[in-house]
Automatic annotation (TrEMBL), chains A, B:
Pfam families found in the cross-reference section: Hydrolase
PANTHER family associated with the record: HALOACID DEHALOGENASE, TYPE II (AFU_ORTHOLOGUE AFUA_2G07750)-RELATED (PTHR43316:SF3), HYDROLASE, HALOACID DELAHOGENASE-RELATED (PTHR43316)
Keyword Transit peptide annotated: no
Keyword Hydrolase: yes
Domain of life: Bacteria
Entries under NCBIfam families matching the protein: HAD-SF-IA-v2, HAD_type_II
Protein name: Haloacid dehalogenase type II
Organism of provenance: Pseudomonas ogarae (strain DSM 112162 / CECT 30235 / F113)
Amino acid sequence: MTLPRALAFDVFGTVVDWHSGIAREASTFVSTYLPAVSPAEFAMQWRRLYAPALRECIKGHGGFVVLDTLHYETLVQLLTTYGLEVDQLAPEALHTLAHAWRRLDPWPDVAEGLALLRRRFAVVTLSNANVALMIAMNRYNGLQWDALLGAEFAQTYKPDPAAYLSTARALDLKPNELCLVACHHSDLAAARDCGLMTAYVDRPMEYGGAPAPDAAQAQDWDWQADSFIDLARRLQVMST
Amino acid sequence: MTLPRALAFDVFGTVVDWHSGIAREASTFVSTYLPAVSPAEFAMQWRRLYAPALRECIKGHGGFVVLDTLHYETLVQLLTTYGLEVDQLAPEALHTLAHAWRRLDPWPDVAEGLALLRRRFAVVTLSNANVALMIAMNRYNGLQWDALLGAEFAQTYKPDPAAYLSTARALDLKPNELCLVACHHSDLAAARDCGLMTAYVDRPMEYGGAPAPDAAQAQDWDWQADSFIDLARRLQVMST
């Protein structure tokens, strides 16, 4: 197998543990306003509104809307569903909670594995996160990237092919010289349809241990690994 | 003076010494094919074709063309002016030389000063360089940024206002919360017209000691510094 010339990373789930991070960030709010709901369940319900919001934005005619804004809108939607009067809440508290997605920690293998991979490959984000969100998250958790690409750069969301193809183009690469690293089969399938190489990293705890919704879409990906350190080894990056 | 919430940097001249870098990178080619020309003069002539090429791209109707490509096109233009038969040269040698702009060193104060500034501020590029060029340059010289913004992200070149305003928008900032750091009065003037804060850093050796072409456009900028370390001090970043 030819090695890729650069690696593009999905972020939510693949790099950072959004499930426990959102539960942690939302816990005070949830215990105050929604005492019958567990923070972990709240995180799961919020994330469930994510894919439909993206699809709406891809199809919609209102122009591209950044993910920070979709997080805010889906938060309002979720709280309304829970029966809260959103107008009665402090706007500041809502904005802080919507920015919970900026304060997520990487999985334990990521800092070391990403630094290893970066020795040999340019590493960029190919995430639906907007630039301001990614900058805030990186400054929060200390991760270093060669560039932040993906949705905002492409002005559309994954799995729209333009999101993958614009990343390759910005890197001055042919699609088949770029490898997407992701824990989601659906994301990898869309990347493969665009001609990208694919590396699957298993994140069994993404949904707190529950099965992933796209488990049935598994294929034989170009590489399969159980951590970024394992991926570095498979991509022939020496650790010493 | 209120402090900015993020810093956006011009790159060629402000961060890296293109004049001596291009002279160094071109020296073998120039001594082989243009023995009557000094590499420093070659660098200066090549750079002179830069602003007209950008203006043409801003005004033109051919869509946005990345800087790597403009470097290649202006190189061919320059060599033709010197009387070389470009068709007779190895395409590989031309491409390597056009990519000389990817292999430039920072001024001596930059690595330390930028690291200091980054402790307190998000630091992004607001350069006419394309993403692939900036990634290659950063991997060559070791500089670290929070994001690569500017021309390719905006799909237009400075001094088009859209280049400055799209950078602020991507950072989720109002224009007056963002400060451009540049050694070019013309760049700072365009940023100020868009409402950005401005920090001038003096780079007297940008043209090998010759006066800068925009010296007459000097204004009282919000901050003036003679190095990135000096700028960090003026922006109240402690060095210990």
